[in-house]
Structure formats: structure tokens, C-alpha cells
Amino acid sequence: MTTPVRDTQAMIAAMDPVLDKQLYCFVSPEQPGAALELMRHALATFREDEGLSLIVPAREAANAGIDTQHFARIILLVHSDLEGFGLTAAVSGVLAEAGIACNVVAALRHDHLFVPARRADEALALLRALQERSPES
Questions:
Q1: What is the per-residue pLDDT across 12-71, written as a single tens digit (0 to 9) for each?
Q2: Do the Cβ atoms of 86 and 108 come closer than 8 Å?
Q3: Which contiguous run of DSSP H or E holds residue 112?
Q4: Domains of the chain, with CATH numbers?
Q5: Beta strand 111-116 with 44-48: parallel, antiparallel or unpaired?
Q6: Which of 19, 53, 21 is nearest to 39 (CA)?
Q7: How many whole angstroms separate alpha carbon 51 and alpha carbon 30?
Q8: Cα(6)–Cα(89) distance, rounded to whole angstroms?
Q9: Other CB atoms within 10 Å distance of the CB of residue 103
Q10: How many Cβ atoms are within 10 Å of 38's Cβ, its own excluded?
Q11: Element (H, E) at 93
């Protein structure tokens, strides 16, 4: 197991962004049966006041009859410390400057960035450039 990285510049220098080949959708199924089926395939779930939010593979959303926007997931391979700060601001900032939406999910070991599928390659290139510019690279 790797040691979590807390320093902002060290996290950026070690982020090693990787593009997942799978596409994902953010959904909130209304019918209990659909929710249970989609939960079996969910990459992530979050309970909000308005209902359950799921991040599911796009093919599973389509199988459930849900037609919604597709997102690509970029995984930052650095084991970022949960008390580290600045990584989300740095990556979302560089993407925002390019007009690329970014939904960040921070898990225990890695950060996962969901960007519009049509801009995935551009987002990945921007993140790799950010990493290369880091003083600790």
C-alpha cells in the first residue's frame, strides 16, 4: 500500500492521470426496481435530500431506458491524503480555464474526475501538462 501524499505540489507532480475507457452517466432512478438494478452496476452512489444519485456505466443507463449525458472518468493515480488540499482546485482550475466541466469524486485513495465524454482527450492532455509543469515533476 502506498503512503498518502498530502503536499499540494507533490500531489500534482504525482497525479498521473489515466483515462478510463468506460463511459458513465449520472442518474437518479425513480422506480425502486430500476434503482436496485442500477445500484448493482454503480461505480458510486450518493444519497441526497432529493433522492439517490448513481454513477453508472453508460450502457447500464441505456439498458434502463435512461438517455442522459455521457461522461468520461479520469483517475488521478496519486494516493492523495484525505486531509491534503489544493489538488482539486488545481485540476478543476486548469479545466475551467479551457471551459471543460469537471465533477470530482474523492475516494479513499484516488480522485476521480468526470468530464464530458467529447472533451476527455483534451482534459487528459491539460492535466498531463499541469503535472509536467509542477516544480516537483
A1: 999 999 999 999 999 998 777 788 889 999 999 999 999 889 999 999 999 999 999 999
A2: no
A3: strand 111-116
A4: 8-133 (3.30.2130.10)
A5: unpaired
A6: 53
A7: 8
A8: 14
A9: 15
A10: 25
A11: helix 87-97
Tally of residues, the chain: 137
In this structure, what C-alpha cell is assigned to residue 92?
A: 478543476
Give the DSSP per-residue string, 3-68.
PPB-SHHHHHHT--EEEEEEEEEEE---SHHHHHHHHHH-SEEEEETTEEEEEEEHHHHHHTT---
DSSP 2: P
Supply the pLDDT for residue 109.
94
- Confidence at 1, pLDDT banded by 50, 70, 90: low
For 17, the grid coordinates are 492521470
Name the pTM for this structure.
0.94
Q: Among 95, 108, 69, which Cα is nearest to 56's?
A: 69
